Amino acid sequence: MIEVTDLTKRYGSTTAVDGLTFTVRPGAVTGFLGPNGAGESTTMRMIVGLARPTSGSARVNGHAYADLRAPLQEVGVMLDGRTVHPGRTAWGHLMGLARTHGIGRARVQQVIELAGLTSVARRRVGGFSLGMTQRLGIAAALLGDPPTVVLDEPVNRLDPDGVLWIRGLLRSLADDGRTVFLSSHLMSELAAVANRVVVIGRGALLADDDIDALVTRSARRRRPRAVGRAGAAGARARGGGRDGPARRRRPARGHRHRRRHGGCARRRAGRPGARAGHGRRDAGGGVPRPDGGRRRVRRHRRSRGGGRSVVSATLATLPSTPGVTWPRTLASEWGKTWGLRSTRWAVAATVVLNAAMCVLTAFDSLVGPEGYGYSLAYLAAGYLLFTQVPLLVHGVLAGAGEFSAGGATSTFAVAPRRLGVLTAKAVTTAGVAAVTGVVTLVTSSLVLLASPFGAALRLGGDEQ
After folding, report:
1. If residue 330 lies in a helix (H) or strand (E), which one and from where to where?
2. How far from the centroid of its chain's Cα atoms is residue 295's Cα?
3. Spatial separation of the C-alpha atoms in residues 100 and 111, rounded to whole Å
């Protein structure tokens, strides 16, 4: 259950969210509707702790999001499917999130199959289509088998098959007794899957009601486009209107006209609500015709009871001691860093550059133990410090890419304690540098010992 009470968010003089109060209950799909800039995304970010409210509170299952011990297993969050580092694979991204909670590889494979990403699991996310990144974000939200799911416009960028898949998935989640909260800008899309809808405009609450009742009430408020108050008065003044003479009809057109203009005009006019203008939808994705909306909902509900649940999680794949700990966060950052191909290339470049410098020094006739008196360890350490520059540059670029691509947002959503995450990132960077330093030092020492320079050093030691 999600409880929002007097939630307000201001950015300077701009009020993004203004005193919202509503409740999202389990066992139902609750839609969050509003035009662009109405404050849906900001509200969801405050619910999952990614934005701090100016006033008010948002509680998930009776607790603030930051106080949850295992957020990934309490709330599944997808605010933007594109918040993934483009250099990581789908498998690497999900494993990085799973390690923060001690979730095993079997569960990761399970959600990959659920999202239909099995064939592209080892491909880098930078080459994914928009629909595939959206599926990856939904898979990340279901990774911990959470009782509450928060999805920001999950239907966007999906193809028709993906739209049918996400509708069935959301209904299955609600049928399992979970809390499902999703946002959209289209009333027609929410009417196909939601039970209730929360409508906001300019950050303020406009409606919180059952979807069927809201659609019906909205349709009744819409007046006919052809005959308004002024039009009706004018018709009555001219002797027409309800009691006046019937309007002259046009002669029926032939089959060529119907084929050219998309069907029979009389058949289109015979639809319920067509004369009142309810069959149209405004540019903002407004209210669909009420009979069509109810009929779509009923048809979906008839089919949702058959078959097994599509989210049946094997509890054996989840950890027996859930929770985000610093060692798990460190393991997650370590795996994500080594999962980047650029990290491996930077380490290889550092080792090769150091070895090349050692070779040039060893076979240079102007450098030797008699000329400068350098020891083997001194030369190896000096080259090691010099060749750490590529690794340092990579660390800066990788960190900047993590934040610019939004990958840090997905990490903070599953591990709300940001200081622990940032500390783990710093320790991981230092650890990569230390491992690379050890490998480089050993490599350069072996090169120098195998060279004539090393032989001269050994010869000088024997003479002493």
Report:
1. helix 326-339
2. 31
3. 16
Helices (H), strands (E): how many in the chain? 19, 10
DSSP state of 228: -
pLDDT tens, 55-110? 999 999 999 998 998 999 999 999 887 778 888 899 999 999 999 999 999 999 99
Tokens (6 digits) for 338: 């080594």
Label each residue of 78-119 as H, E or C.
ECCCCCCCCCCEHHHHHHHHHHCCCCCHHHHHHHHHHHCCHH
CB neighbourhood size of 112 (10 A): 21
State how far the Cα of 284 lies from the Cα of 230, in Å rounded to an integer.
26
Do 382 and 68 contact (CB within 8 A), yes or no?
A: no
The three-state (H, E, C) secondary structure of 20-65, written as one string: EEEEECCCEEEEEECCCCCCHHHHHHHHCCCCCCCEEEEEECCEEH
433-462 confidence digits (pLDDT tens) = 888 878 877 777 777 677 665 555 554 444
Contact in structure between 96 and 89 (CB atoms under 8 Å): no
Q: Which of 37, 65, 35 minimizes the C-alpha distance to 50? A: 65
From CA 36, how far away is CA 288, in angstroms rounded? Answer: 19
Task: Give, as one character, the DSSP assignment of residue 149.
Answer: E
What b-and-e string marks burial along 326-349, b requiring 16 or more CB atoms within 10 Å of the CB?
Answer: eebbbbbbbebbbbbeebeebbeb
Cβ contacts of residue 301 below 8 Å, gap of 6+? Answer: none
Whole-structure pTM value = 0.72
Q: Hey, what amino acid is at 463?
A: E
Alpha-carbon span 252 to 119, nearest angstrom: 55
Nearest to 394, CA basis, from 428, 421, 357: 428
Amino acid at 132: M
Distance from the Cα of residue 259 to its chain's centroid: 44
Contacts of 405 (CB under 8 A, 6+ apart): 82, 83, 84, 85, 86
Cα separation, 12 vs 5, in Å, equals: 21
Query: Degrees (nearest 5) of the Cα angle 452, 458, 464?
Result: 140
